[in-house]
Design brief:
Strand order of the largest sheet: 14-13-12-11-7-10-9-8-16
Shape: globular
Length: 399
Amino acid sequence: MKRYVQVGCGHRGTEAYAVPLVKQYGDYGTLCGVYDVNPLRAKLVSELTGKDIPVFDDFTRMLEEVKPDTVIVTTVDCFHDRYIVEALEAGCDVISEKPLTTTLEKARAIYETQKRTGHKVTVTFNLRFHPFFSKLKEMVDSGVLGEILSVHYEWMLGMKHGADYFRRWHAEREKSGTLLVHKSTHHFDIVNWLLDQYPVSVNAFGTRRVFGDAGEAGGQRCLTCEHRCPFYYDITSNEAHRRLYLNCESADGYLRDDCVYSKRVNIQDTVSVNALYSGGTVMSYTLSAFAPYEGMKLVLNGTKGRMEATNIDNTVRLYTTDGRDELIQLPAEEEDDAHGGADRRIRDNLFMGKPIDLPGQSAGLREGFMSIAIGIAADESMRSGRQIDLRPYADTLFK
């Protein structure tokens, strides 16, 4: 039976890994320790598992005392590399929440450590396990579209969902790498997976038009704010957030309901990205963090046909050069678990060793790097006004 430890005890780490590992996968693995820079939150997560998991005040000491087989990393994005590298050096495999990390330099350090130690990094892209995207992969791999020539990808974050990123640490480039790294890593990974190619060049534009100092003047946080702007959030109304964040503020001062108009916000809320892939496919991608509805639209143009897919109603419109015109209803989201059942499927694979359904469905270091590479290059392109060449990294990390 494998021995696990977890670093990072926020909402995602708690609900997706720590609690399910203990309560649902106890026959396959044991959570032997948790660590977080906020000791109150780590203690709470231990209690939520119902097993009083040992809480450590130092990550290195946790590795030395527990000697785990695998370390689960669910910290703030910019710290992933620190814990991944140390875990690999200690002889452990690693399960890391997306994104892999926030800079190309940090990713190279992880790559070199994995290569030297021989231990494995798995990056958890749950969208690969979502029934909707799994079906798209099956259709593309069937060859119905022929060779893919171009991709147009639009992702809309609804007002409530989009604003939530700007209340949290995600709104600070130094911590999240911007939404292009933290959020869009999911989207880029799906395109990389569908194409089975890697990105070689990126050009992008982006603005901040709604949040941060581009918006209204606000207060320090929603809890004490009198403005009640359209993005007002009552943290006391969410039991998980109240317990994990509001009740643990005294340990580190982190505000889960910080003002979306704060000057600390330095990421874009509207972006447009163009990418060239190793096989010649071109992609155009847009992300809006302020949309009237939530969802995505994905178009793939190939030598044999065109696919228009959307998860808004889970449909695909398929047109082929031989005259086929078909509307296909794809699997709807399952309500038994988060992300339409994708979280449960990826845990089954990680903790039970359940076989994957499709080739390449489980993502490793290469896939983790390819997805963040587009976002990091896009942010650099916006700031520099240049097209960013990723081939120097592709030579060692993509092939």
